[in-house]
Description:
Blueprint: H1 3-21, H2 28-46, H3 52-69, H4 74-84, H5 92-119
Helix pairs in contact: 1-2, 2-5, 3-5
Amino acid sequence: MNITKIFYATWAVLFALFAYWQFNDPDPEVWVSTYVVAIIFCLFGFRGIFPKIPLTVLVVACLVGAVYFWPESVSDWIVQELEQKNLSMKTPQMEEARETFGLMIIALVMLPGLIKAWKK
């Protein structure tokens, strides 16, 4: 199995876990769906399929969403998470910060496939 297959298989499993953890979210339909889309593109990547336009739309949408949800202070958010010592949502700002980084992870994971698609 080559490194690309391992990369996308690993991320498909991780995104499945992320989707599972979203079921107790205030808006699970949005975030579970987002991670399911990421899983689908990981499965495409596993098979060596990199659809240029859909991948571009996904990465751009994730980056726009990350900018939209960007926390006022990343350092304050990290301190708040460390002080809390669990993953429950105490404030809407914590939830938005987590969503920001989830979207950034999706964009970064899809980036190698997007580059490969545009090089063809």
